[in-house]
Design brief:
Rossmann fold, 7-stranded mixed beta sheet, 3 domains, alpha/beta, 17 helices, GMP Synthetase, Chain A, domain 3, 28% strand, Beta-Lactamase
Length: 490
């Protein structure tokens, strides 16, 4: 038989003229073409001769011309031309979803909780706080990082509200003495939203906090986060490194994970194997493999990182470095050719070095893999519709000169209007500080120089401190003095 390459054949078989897929797969034959007088058939190596005889008899009076193909080519052809019907939703295992926009006429507590969640989602809150006080239940939303009281309810329904939320989150309704943590998925229209639930006992009853994770929310770009041009360029340059460690630092709720997601989105996702290990997965990024850890089954950051390293990754995002074991594994992974992105809790970018040393990591290892450390805070942006001008205090003008910020005579203060919900603010922006590790800083790390010495050198090398970035945003009328004083030590 003549040897052919299936990839070079213009396969002319159409439905009704080609063999059934079951027949082809079982017998190792493929009909290539059929005319009035001739049938061309490809036969995989090792095919039974009885099959060849059967095909010749099946096509009488037409002549059959056979061609041989390798088993590998045959298997490849079958695989590439196989189509699988998508499984209908009712066949798969679906996570229970609670529809918030369904009205239940005989369960007012259900309707109350649904309304609380819907309002919070529409107001773009990040957290819902349900707190039992001495005489009432207080409902607060965290909007733009600040808690706001939205309503008060009668204390008599506290246990009913608690039990309903516990049922939704899969918690024990009988347990009121110990803290509990759970999760639930809720639906508003076509939108699915995850809520992470925390319940703790207090002297007046229970405090319930539900953190909102809208995975379908728009993924912000690095440019939209509010970094100044200098820091933005530094972060983007570090993201193009083939290996190394990039750390984001700041308090809880300062937007570290959002920045890491934005940085991941700038990478060549189609060309790289990117895996994230998060707790929880806050936002889905197309083309990236995202893993949610689960301490209940001992699926930790450290344990998952060990297994992800066997997946031939280029880039790994570890949601948080919580202990020395995870820290050492992350650094050694960066040393062996991986780009590692993670978060750490320190007050500024330079303190990352001391924190890693406190975890027991050798200075030479830190110097070898650390590419940059970004410290950030989130401040609310002043509402442009109602902001008013006010003189800048002399003390702040002096600080501006010290940090080489162009001093101005006036700044904006928040007042409040219908547009911003009478808060005086709308949206948030980043106050950032980016430490890029150059050769001099590497040597300073190895020699275990103090954070103050490293910080002093870094600022001469072009690093903008948190204070200087905050003052620039005040001078540029982006935020207010009260906001930067709330987040940054000037």
């Amino acid at each position: 038989m003549e040897r052919i390459d299936l990839k070079k054949i213009d396969f002319a078989g159409v439905e009704g003229k080609s063999y059934s897929r079951e027949f082809m797969s079982r017998n190792g034959v493929i009909k290539l073409d059929e005319t009035e007088n001739l049938v061309k058939v490809a036969v995989a190596d090792g095919t039974n001769k009885n099959v060849i005889s059967f095909i010749e008899g099946y096509h009488i009076p037409k002549k059959v011309s056979f061609f041989s193909v390798s088993k590998a080519d045959f298997a490849s052809f079958i695989g590439e031309t196989t189509t699988i019907e998508p499984m209908s939703e009712h066949k798969g295992v679906q996570e229970e979803k609670h529809a918030l926009d369904t009205i239940t006429h005989d369960a007012p507590i259900v309707n109350i909780i649904n309304a609380i969640c819907i309002d919070a989602i529409h107001m773009e809150a990040s957290d819902i706080h349900i707190e039992t006080q001495a005489d009432f239940i207080q409902i607060r939303y965290r909007i733009d990082g600040v808690l706001q009281i939205v309503k008060k309810l009668e204390k008599s329904i506290a246990s009913s509200i608690s039990n309903r939320i516990k049922i939704m989150a899969g918690l024990n309704t009988m347990e009121q003495r110990l803290p509990q943590d759970g999760r639930m998925t809720v639906g508003v229209g076509e939108e699915n939203i995850d809520l992470r639930v925390s319940v703790i006992p207090t002297t007046n009853g229970e405090s319930i906090v539900m953190r909102i994770f809208n995975k379908s929310a728009k993924l912000l770009s690095l440019e939209e986060l509010g970094f100044n041009k200098n820091d933005l360029q530094r972060i983007q340059n570090c993201g193009t490194q083939p290996y190394g460690l990039i750390l984001l630092t700041g308090p809880t709720g300062s937007g570290k994970t959002t920045t890491l997601h934005a940085l991941l989105a700038t990478l060549a996702i189609n060309e790289l194997k990117i895996v994230t290990i998060e707790d929880p997965v806050e936002q889905l990024i197309p083309g990236i493999n995202q893993v949610q850890i689960n301490e209940d089954i001992n699926l930790s950051f450290e344990g998952m990182l060990r297994r992800v390293l066997r997946q031939d990754p280029n880039v790994i995002m570890v949601g948080e470095i919580r202990d020395a074991v995870t820290a050492e594994l992350a650094l050694r992974s960066a040393l062996t050719g991986h780009l590692i992105l993670s978060t750490l809790h320190t007050n500024d970018s330079v303190s990352v070095i001391a924190r890693l040393e406190d975890m027991g990591l050798e200075p030479y290892l830190i110097a070898a893999v650390l590419r940059c450390a970004v410290a950030q805070r989130l401040v609310r942006k002043v509402c442009p519709h109602c902001a008013k001008k006010a003189p800048i205090p002399q003390k702040i003008q002096t600080l501006m000169k010290k940090h080489k910020v162009e001093a101005k005579n006036t700044m904006l203060i928040a007042t409040g209007c219908e547009t911003c919900g009478h808060t005086g603010y709308h949206g948030r922006t980043v106050i950032g500080e980016t430490l890029v590790i150059d050769q001099t800083i590497e040597e300073m790390i190895i020699r275990q120089k103090s954070s103050a010495e490293i910080s002093k050198y870094a600022e001469t090398a072009g690093m903008n401190s948190l204070a200087s970035d905050a003052l620039r945003k005040l001078a540029d009328s982006i935020t207010t003095l009260s906001e930067i004083e709330r987040e940054v030590i000037l």
